[in-house]
Write a structure and sequence with these properties.
By secondary structure, the chain is an alpha/beta fold. The chain has 2 domains: about 10-155 and about 295-325, Rossmann fold (3-Layer(aba) Sandwich); about 155-290 and about 345-355, Rossmann fold. Helix content is about 40%, strand content about 15%. It is built from 11 helices and 13 strands. A 7-stranded mixed beta sheet has the order 3-2-1-4-5-12-13, with helices on both faces. A 4-stranded parallel beta sheet has the order 7-8-6-11, sandwiched between helices. Strand 12 (about 320-325) and strand 13 (about 330-335) form a beta hairpin. Helix 1 packs parallel to helix 9 and helix 5 (about 155-175) crosses helix 6 (about 190-200). The relative contact order is 0.17. The structure holds 6-O-phosphono-beta-D-fructofuranose. 6-O-phosphono-beta-D-fructofuranose (F6P) binds near residues 118 and 260.
Length: about 375
């Protein structure tokens, strides 16, 4: 924006929203691919906080990205509290905010922004792009709920972590004849629950996309009892809800942040007791374990592919787009397309049918 066209394009990189395993691979890949094409790379610390607040912006050096592939989190830092539009109540206010972000970028001599993030960050990118800021998006979220892309970086690692937890809970469930309820993340998408549940051999999987009937889950436990299998494993997504209910929240939505979900597992345990289940029922909430730790190799590879393509889009001055995986290939789409696509589990889709076909109870017919 501020420099003559002949100068090297100066790109500001940030990791928005919550962290996800694989972000560092995306940062590293973007840096290498961009600098090899003659771009300058700076980074904003803690999402937008660096750009707009005190955390600051720094020029990324090759030393910064060495040895970071196996590290979880983001070397740039993340923030779920730095949405610049959090307090903007209408479109006019949003355009004002976008104009001030644009001015800030001009002051810093940054020509374009690359934002790695989930649906919230892509919404921010869309608004900024609309206001004339050159933006490119990289989809990351353990929730896997960005519909424009077949995969987001972070989901595979979260599924791996959750599946290992289900494995571990199996042995203790069996030793004590207990019902183990495992509450996993994913917000309003059931990808982690469904995939980890299938991978871990769960007896019931409850996802936000299919409202459950507690009686059906209780019937599944009794069916197993009748076979002499007096233990059961139930995986429940944090956004799952009983028929006629709503997701269980521990904090309401506020200032551009979605509600904090939690308590779905305990609520199910209560429903099972009401349905006459007399086993010991124990609830394990996996929480942020699913976001931490070394990224799976598949997330590192995906994030590397995303980072490289984001650098290509910048080098070719093709802004206003989010990189995506479609039909197994890396491509890109407009932020409008990216934000419009539904990324939740299809209740009639292949994975749900597969679970039902092997006798997993989904909580509804
Ligand atoms: O969107 C990723 C996610 O981990 C969700 O699965 C979860 O509901 C939420 O973020 C937790 O947010 P926080 O880290 O702010 O508690």
């Amino acid at each position: 924006m501020s420099e003559p066209k002949s100068a090297a394009l100066h790109v500001g990189l940030l990791t928005g929203g919550g962290d996800a395993p694989g972000l560092n691979a995306a940062v590293r890949a973007f840096f290498h691919a961009a600098t090899r094409r003659g771009l300058r790379v700076s980074a904003s610390r803690f999402g937008f906080e660096g750009l707009l607040g005190r955390a600051g912006v720094f020029s990324v050096r090759v030393e910064d990205v060495r040895g970071i592939l196996p590290r979880g989190g983001s070397i740039l830092g993340c923030s779920t509290k730095s949405n610049p539009f959090a307090l903007a109540v209408d479109r006019a206010a949003k355009l004002d905010v976008a104009a001030s972000v644009k001015r800030r970028l001009i002051d810093l001599g940054i020509d374009a922004l690359v934002l790695a993030g989930g649906d919230g960050t892509m919404g921010i990118a869309r608004m900024l792009a609309e206001a004339g800021v050159s933006c490119v998006g990289i989809p990351k979220t353990i929730d896997g709920d960005l519909g424009g892309t077949e995969r987001t970086c972070g989901l595979d690692t979260a599924v791996e972590t959750a599946a290992h937890a289900v494995d571990a809970l199996h042995s203790t469930a069996e030793s004590h004849n207990r019902v183990m309820v495992v509450e996993v993340m994913g917000r309003n998408a059931g990808w982690i629950a469904l995939r980890a549940g299938i991978a871990g051999g769960a007896d019931a999987i409850l996802i936000p996309e299919i409202a459950y009937d507690g009686e059906r889950v209780a019937a599944k436990i009794r069916e197993r009892d009748a076979l002499g299998l007096r233990f059961s494993i139930i995986v429940i997504g944090e956004g799952a809800q009983p028929v006629g209910g709503t997701p269980s929240e521990i904090e309401r939505a506020r200032q551009g942040r979605p509600p904090r979900l939690g308590g779905a597992g305990e609520r199910l345990a209560q429903a099972l007791a009401e349905a006459g289940i007399t086993h010991d029922v124990r609830v394990t909430v996996l929480g942020h374990l699913q976001r931490g730790g070394a990224p799976a190799a598949s997330d590192r590879v995906l994030a590397t592919r995303f980072g490289v393509h984001a650098a290509e889009l910048c080098a070719e001055r093709r802004f206003g787009r989010m990189v995506a995986l479609r039909n197994g290939a890396i491509e890109s789409m407009t932020f409008d397309e990216a934000c419009a696509a539904r990324g939740t589990v299809d209740p009639g889709g292949d994975l749900v049918r597969c679970a039902r076909a092997i006798g997993i109870e989904l909580g509804a017919a």
